[in-house]
Amino acid sequence: MAAHPEEFAARYRAAGYWIDETFADFVADRTTRFADRTAVVGVDAHGTPVRWTYAELAAAADAAAARLAGAGVVPGDRVVLALPNVVEFVAVVLGCFRAGILPVFAQPGHRETELSQFCAIADAAAIVVSGDTDGHDHRALVDRVAERLRAQGVEPPALVDVQQWPRPGSSEPRIHADPAHPDLGTGRVGVLRRSGCAGSTSSEGLFAPGRAEEVAFLQLSGGTTGVAKLIPRTHADYLYSVRASAEICGLGEETVLLVVLPAAHNFAMSSPGILGVLHVGGTVVLARDPSPRTAFRLVAEERVTWTSLVPPLAQAWISSARRRTPDLSSLEVIQVGGARLSDAVAAEIGPVLGARVQQVFGMAEGLVNYTRLDDPDELVLTTQGRPISPDDEIRIVDPADPDEAEVPDGEEGALQTRGPYTIRGYYAPGGADDPVNRDAFTADGFYRTGDLVRRLPSGHLVVTGRAKDQINRGGEKVATEEIEGPLLARPDVLDAVVVGLPDPYLGERICVVVRPEAGVRSGPDLGAELTEHLRASGLATYKLPDQFEFLDQFPVTHVGKNSRRDLRRLLAARLSDE
Ligand code: J2J
Fold first, then answer.
1. Which of 187, 324, 459, 526 is most buried, most CB within 10 Å of its CB?
2. Does the record bear Ligase in its keywords (predicted)?
């Protein structure tokens, strides 16, 4: 089960969800239509302030595409982007779209473990970083990625460092001037080279015919295993979610969006995000760091009307605003999503920050739920919203039932979904038959979200828990296996289990319960050594544990397939009680 079956595709076209617009068309149209309006405000990779009109953004995008071409990237290639919130990020994304290059949306916090997986799975032609960023040398990081890939027999990607580009505003090459790549900029490309899909032809089925229905980029899955999963989103499906999101949120030319979350995250890109704002001719303001101080300054200076936060940031804004009474008078809506917002914090946002709350429960695989701006307070403050589309199909099943029978109305169950902008399969070498796809999708094409929810008669969903081996640390998703794997490889660790413990600020914090080998001294020193080991193994910074616990024995579980999951639950329950 990979591409949407024709019967569904036909329905989505007939309903007007899937239209014949590619991202190349989108960029060309909006940057022309809104040419003189302000598109992007932020800083460049050197920290210099930049303001771009839509016309200037188009020029910057063309220049970025030309630089990728100069690095040997051709239409149809995948390019891993691991950039912070700098204006070059927007230029590179739109440049890729114009050129028919497929971005792979990584994060600047990713390290060689993640980046080498993305490069290998996507067979990336280049990796784009901002050299010296936030205290980390990303050029050296790319060297380490290349080393790992070579060791696996994979050709390493070209390094593209936006810090080595001319400053925005200086004269730039135009992509049409590159005779080596006559297709660049025409938008007439975007078909994946078959060799590109990890050397396999069996994933052909992931790509539907017709340009707008081809894959436009790869998003990242939060992940539930040690193996990264890439999410192939098509022009048609994603642009539908962007248009519908902009409409639900009532965005217009006057919208000024402050992007505080990592710009490449699906929330920041599309719910309604950067693309939703560019769709309507509004202004995107990029915050280089997520601190309330920076955000409050930008809100006041740029008269920001709209922003998106994860719950810990919403809390940070509330406590900061109580201390310094910033001018947030322009702010109309604060969206909160990515992790469960507590009802108590939700109720404080309006009174303290003076903006309306919108809860957003979304996933890079597709489905996005919003509370609507005219929903009664009760729903806005206590639910995570309802789906974008009338054709988003929701199924809530018994997580303990192997046949996945639906639970009675209103009861808690595991959420499965299918619809016009939800994928039918990950971008995997084995295509539909790949194990990641067999586990994550039902035979009839529903995506198993791993979330436990309850549905109200209004259709609003309440997220009540999770049935996947993942920790949601304030919106950042970490698969338990990613941390356990490198620890289990150590001779002084007999066993290690990662559990999420309730945390008043993060929602959940990462705790590793370790059974040391006999005779090994446990304690803070061992904890620090294990953290160092994880860092040295090349794991993303945000996945490093918050806490270690050492036990001589683990509680006993029933032997069986899910025993490790049960063990996690037992340990989490035991540690939370303490
Ligand atoms: C509880 N859990 C939530 C919420 C996401 C918009 C907003 C968020 C994401 C995102 C996104 C939650 N309450 N309000 O892509 O477009 C958890 C669920 C879900 C997983 C998806 C968007 N909002 N979650 O967070 O792909 O567990 O997308 O399945 O990063 O985050 O994570 P991700």
1. 187
2. yes
- pLDDT one-digit tens code per residue, 64-78: 999 999 999 999 999
Tell me 203's DSSP state: T
CATH 3.40.50.150 for the 18-190 domain, yes or no: no
Q: What residue ranges of the chain are covered by domains with CATH 3.40.50.12780?
A: 248-373+384-466
Angle between helices 292-302 and 311-324 (to 10 degrees): 70
Rounded to the nearest whole angstrom, what is the distance from the C-alpha of residue 495 to the centroid of ligand 1? 30
Closest atom of ligand 1 to CA, residue 470: 27
CA distance linking residue 181 with residue 124, whole number of Å: 18
Best mutation site among 361, 382, 421, 478 for ligand 1 pocket (most ligand atoms within 8 Å of CB): 361
* Ligand 1, pocket residues at CB < 6 Å: 222, 266-267, 270-271, 337-340, 359-364, 368, 384, 449, 451, 463, 466, 472, 477
Domain 474-577 indexed as CATH 3.30.300.30: yes
Ligand 1 atom at minimal distance to the Cα of residue 359:
14
Q: What is the ipTM of this complex?
A: 1.00
> For the segment 98-142, what is each residue's pLDDT rounded down to a tens digit?
999 999 999 999 999 999 999 999 999 999 999 999 999 999 999
Q: State whether residue 504 is helix, strand or coil.
A: coil
